[in-house]
Amino acid sequence: MPNLLRTSIVYRSSALVLGIALFVGSIFAAFTFFSETNSEQDHVKIRMTSLLSTVENTVSIACYLSDANLAKEVGQGLLKNDELASVKIFSANTVLADLQKKHFSPQVKKLTPLMRAKLQIQRQVYSPFNPQEEVCQIEVIPDIEFIRHQVNQKALFTSCLLMLQTLIMAGTLVLIVMNLITRPIKNISDRLHHLAPDANASLPLPPGNERDEIGQLVRDVNTLFSKLFHILEDERDLRIRHQIGERKFRAIFDNSETGIFLLNSRGEVLSSNPAYARLFALPNTPDAATMQASLISRLSDYALRLQTMIEHAAHEDVVSSEDFAIEVGQPPQQKWINLVLSRVENDILQGLVNDITERKMREESANQLAMTDHLTGIGNRLGFEKAIARIQFEMHATLIKQFYILMIDLDGFKQVNDQHGHEIGDQVLIRFTQILTKLVRRSDFIARTGGDEFVVLLKNIEDVEKVKSIANKIIFEAGQTITFNGNVQIRIGASIGIRNVDMADFDLAKVLHQADEAMYEAKKSGKNQFCFYKEY
Q: I need a labelling partner for 143 at 20 to 30 A (CA). Which of 27, 102, 292, 346 fits?
């Protein structure tokens, strides 16, 4: 039977209709039962109230006279009513009458919710001569068993009639549904079950249902089968073309020299082609953890730039492109790559990565020539401007907080040049460049911006005493005697102007002018010393 309920719409619909009918009938029967019970209890209460009203005057006289016999007679008269089980007439000081039927028990006072505990009635009785004076009270308790019996009989009879009516209607409805709906549908289902979707077959119209909804259903199913057959034919052709196109795409994807990959907003690589693995020198068959960590680990020195690219591509729906210098392989070799990111969907990005090492080397070679002082090998004015622009970008990105500009002019260099010639002068400039290179960090920048003018950029130094120490060392080393060709002794000096820059939106021309002023102030103060811009 449970299997039939799961597999047969006839049995399931019949069981469902009968079940719903029984459920609804039970609810209404229960509602009717409780309604009849409450109604009968209300009638009992009204009748008891009416009885009390009938004997109220007699009770008033008995209480006023404190006549226990009269009160007892009244109680006995009330107990002749089948619906009463106990009568009590009492005042504050005495009980005039307390009568119960033989089967009465004090436990009957604990009425069930069905019989409504409030059925018992207690009424104040007033003096026959003074309506404001209370002389006693009368309390009556119903005969619970008698009332329950009467109520149950009436309510049960009504509920049974209602359930019988519900079952008859449900059975009739089941027969109608089975013959007009479920049985024809079952026949259609059985025929439909044996039809093959690719056979271009159709269902016959069931007899008697040619013009109703079931007949329309069969016609619609036949139409759908016809369309499905043609769709399957088209899909088969599309699948073949798709497989051919997919093989072509896979060949391009696998054999491309451009690394192609997908990554999420956290920078984790989701999938990639072989070129991607080759560019980053990954194993031929990297595991999932290696693939996910590879992009972030290879670009760990540029984590902020990479995260900025990802955010722009993901949230602003723009194509982001950056060049990165990485080290790959064992032993590590530097390689330049161009990374392009664009959003595909939600937090998924598509990436393209190309090896641009040769192009970068050509560009860097050209840039290096353009930005390098040919005599000393350090930066020239163009290189200095590039370095300042890079520092300004890093300050905007909060990579560095401040930097110092040291504007240096060699004291006595003109006399050396005039007296010993340009060859010795060039050697002095080269020697001073070596001093600067030795005293500053690799992350700092040195440039020769004029004949004997140099600029040093000190980044991320918060302790001004370190800046002073570097300036003092430069002055000390520059002032040492230099011997050329075994007998030519040269001695020069250095005056340094220092300007601290701690704002990203600085005016380059202005801060250079201020550093220059500080340098000339050092010269005016006796040369061979340094001076901060804010100190004078």
A: 27
- 305-313, Cβ contacts within 8 angstroms, sequence gap of 24 or more: 306/267, 306/339, 307/267, 309/339, 309/341, 310/263, 310/265, 310/267, 310/341, 310/349, 311/265, 313/341, 313/342, 313/343, 313/349
- What average pLDDT does this structure show over 368-380? 88
Which CATH number does the domain housing residue 474 bear? 3.30.70.270
107 pLDDT band, cuts 50/70/90, is very low
CB 97 within 8 A of CB 68: yes
Examine the fold and report which residue of 337, 360, 383 is the final residue of a domain before the chain moves on: 360
pTM confidence score = 0.41
User: Which has more pLDDT, 450 or 20?
Assistant: 450
Q: Are 67 and 136 in contact (CB under 8 A)?
A: no
* Token pair listed for 419: 């007296």
Clarify whether residues 233 and 284 are in a common domain: no
Tally the domains of the chain: 4
Please enumerate in sequence order all residues whose Cβ is within 8 A of that of 377, keeping only pairs 6 or more positions apart, or say none: 433
Claim to verify: residue 142 and residue 101 sit in the same structural domain:
yes
* Shared-domain flag, residues 263 and 243: no
Give the DSSP per-residue string, 264-307: -TTS-EEEE-HHHHHHTT--SS--HHHHHHHHHHHTGGGHHHHH
The confidence score (pLDDT) of residue 536 equals: 47
* Structural domain ending residue among the three candidates 221, 236, 255: 255
Count the Cβ atoms, other than its own, within 10 Å of residue 413: 20
Q: Which two tokens stand for residue 39?
A: 């109604």
Task: Give the three-state DSSP class for 451.
Answer: coil
Dihedral angle, C-alpha 216, 219, 223, 226, nearest 10 °: 160
Inter-residue contact 344 to 261 (CB < 8 Å)? no
Residue labelled with tokens 């149950």 = 152
For residue 315, tell me if it sits in a domain: yes
Q: How many helices (H) and strands (E) does the chain have?
A: 15, 16
Tell me if 303 is assigned to some domain: yes
User: Which positions are annotated as active-site residues?
Assistant: 452
Question: What would the pLDDT profile of 148-178 be if each residue is shown by its tens digit?
Answer: 777 777 777 877 887 788 788 878 877 777 7
Structural domain boundaries enclosing 448: 372-535
- 287 and 239 within one domain: no
